[in-house]
């Protein structure tokens, strides 16, 4: 990871990280019940940011 950070700093002058554009939250037992999901040990997408890669991907469905 350090090598990739160094390469990005040399090439771009900054570290560029990928961005999907979502907020994730834990799937609690109460939320799982409200959503009608049996398992409660996962995560759910809580929000999709406007004009993000995730929003553009979802709009093409």
UniProtKB/TrEMBL annotation:
Assigned keywords, A-Z: Hydrolase, Protease
Provide any one GO MF term from the record.
peptidase activity
Entry's EC annotation: 3.4.21.107
- Protein's name in the database: Serine protease Do
Coiled coil feature spans: none
Domain of life from the UniProt record: Bacteria
> What's one GO BP annotation on this UniProt entry?
proteolysis
- Protein's UniProt keywords contain Transport: no
